[in-house]
Structures are given as C-alpha cells and as structure tokens.
C-alpha cells in the first residue's frame, strides 16, 4: 500500500473520531471520556506563525478526542527539547510526539520514552530517522520531496540560479530542502548560511542583499521560512531592484498577501495544522486500539502549493487558524 493510502486512512480515522466526539452530547461528555490519556507534543517550535497553527491542530484533536494535551515548544533549543521529553516521560505522558530537526540531540530522550513503554511518533521533521528514535511513524513532509517539487516550480518560472538561505544551521530538514531543489532544478542552487536569521530579519535582509549584489546571475530565492521570505528575501530583492523569483516553504499572512500581489511566486504548504492534529490522533489510536498506522513508513502531509490560483481560498483558512 502506498503512503498516499496510509495518509487517507489516517485522515479518515481522524474525521470519524472527530465526528464521534461531536455526537456525544455537544462535546462535554466526550471531553471527559479519555482525560486520563495525556498526549504530549514536544516540538522545537518557537510559537510563531507556523508553530502556532501546528499547536492549534494538536489542541483541536485533543478536544475532539477528549484527551489531555501537553504541548510545549523549545524555541529551537534542542537541549531544552530533550529535557522536556525526559520530563514528560517521568511525568506521566501516555504518548509523545516530537519534531526532530536535530535527531541526535533528542535520541536518548526518545529512546528512553520508548523503553518505558510510551508510544512515540515524530512530526514535522524527522521523516528519515523516526525509526532510529523508536517512533512507529512520522507525520509531516518529506523535505527532499518538497525541495524537488520547488525546483520544478522554479524551472517552470524561468529561474536560472537560486539562492537558498538556511536560517538554522543545525536543522537537517532545511538543508534537505535545498538538496531536493538542486536535484530537479535545471540551473544552480547556492546554499547560503543565514544561521540565526529569524532572530534578526533586518540583518538577514542585508546579508541576502549583499549576496544578490555580489552575484548578478542569481534570479531566484528559495526561502525556507515564510518570515525569511517576506522579511528578508523580498526586502533584499526590492532593495537591489532585482525582482527575483521568490518561493518559500510554509505560509504567513504576509507571504500570502505577497503571492496575491504578485510579489512572490509560491509557498510550499506542508499543512502543519494536520501535523499537529494527526500526531494526537495517531497516538490516541495506538493507546486505545493498538493501531500503529503508517506501516513503517512516514505519513505525508505535503508538499502542497499555494499560488495565485488558490491563494484567496487559503487566506480564508489562515484567517480561521487552520492553515
């Protein structure tokens, strides 16, 4: 069975369970049915435009299923994330979902949870290493695949040389996106070190501007984060008058508006609301019915693409907090 079928099965399961919860007396009765199950979602997230939506998905699933949720981000501090997982293992987590941008940093903590009999999944990042961490599946986007699809988009848009700014040096998922793009893009992809770039968007814009000025052949920018796209890449492109073709991974209100206005070409949508929601559902099904969905493979939530063709609909869903 293909990963697409697994994704469909998991999605149908979540919808069916959500429907059952809503049919048990307005949600109040369901809310207490499984409150003894404590599902913990511990990410490297910073609570920004991306991670707040993933958290909303996890919270919605917990409400639909009537479980107790402990969601904590670690603001890209992998040591803090590892200690949070360790505390959760000792503190009564029934199941743990964790993102894994720096898998070595959380490996011992995740394996300790597994050894303690706590089911685990990885989410968002970690699709190639989830088994090494003791997880039974991964829910998210394969970053190599996302990069490949972005590379094909840049080909269609006529770009010839792409700058790929990497804003977290330790995040293997980001380098995978650039690697994937280089596999399908017919021109050259230039990896660009922008470590810590989210903390200083003005500084990031200046660095990207300098790179554009140093190499007039660069006519495209593959931003790996929506805030980098609008707060740095677009600013730098405007400052140089280059009118670079800009695509991004993930979305924000500003990025969507830029697509609508024709200033950016596309956003890769890994559908993080689904990542949060499905992580809780997968653990719930394992705890209540011994399901291990995924068949030993990742369950993909993307990549999808937002372009001028569908941006209006997606903007409506973003306003609702689910995209």
Please provide a written account of the structure.
This protein is an alpha/beta fold and 323 residues long. The protein folds into two domains: 3-141 and 271-302, 3-Layer(aba) Sandwich (Rossmann fold); 143-269, Rossmann fold (3-Layer(aba) Sandwich). The chain has twelve helices and twelve strands. A six-stranded parallel beta sheet has the order 2-1-3-4-5-11, with helices on both faces. It has a six-stranded mixed beta sheet with strand order 7-6-8-9-10-12, with helices on both faces. Helix 3 packs parallel to helix 11, helix 4 (78-90) packs parallel to helix 5 and helix 6 packs across helix 7 (172-184). The longest helix has 20 residues, at 3-22.
- CATH class membership of the largest domain: Alpha Beta
Considering the protein shown, what is the CATH homologous superfamily of the largest domain? Response regulator
Distance, first to last CA: 28 Å
How many domains? The number is 2
Structure at a glance:
With 323 residues, this protein is an alpha/beta fold. It folds into two domains: 3-141 and 271-302, Response regulator (Rossmann fold, 3-Layer(aba) Sandwich), CATH 3.40.50.2300; 143-269, Rossmann fold. 49% of the residues lie in helices and 19% in strands.
Distinctive features:
about 325 residues; alpha/beta; Rossmann fold; six-stranded parallel beta sheet; six-stranded mixed beta sheet; 12 helices; 12 strands; elongated; disordered N terminus
List the helices and strands and how they pair.
Layout: H1 3-22, H2 28-33, E1 34-42, H3 51-65, E2 67-72, H4 78-90, E3 95-98, H5 103-115, E4 120-124, E5 138-141, H6 143-157, E6 161-166, H7 172-184, E7 188-193, H8 201-214, E8 220-223, H9 226-240, E9 245-249, H10 253-260, E10 266-269, H11 272-289, E11 299-302, E12 304-306, H12 311-319
Parallel strand pairs: 1-2, 1-3, 3-4, 4-5, 5-11, 6-7, 6-8, 8-9, 9-10
Antiparallel strand pairs: 10-12
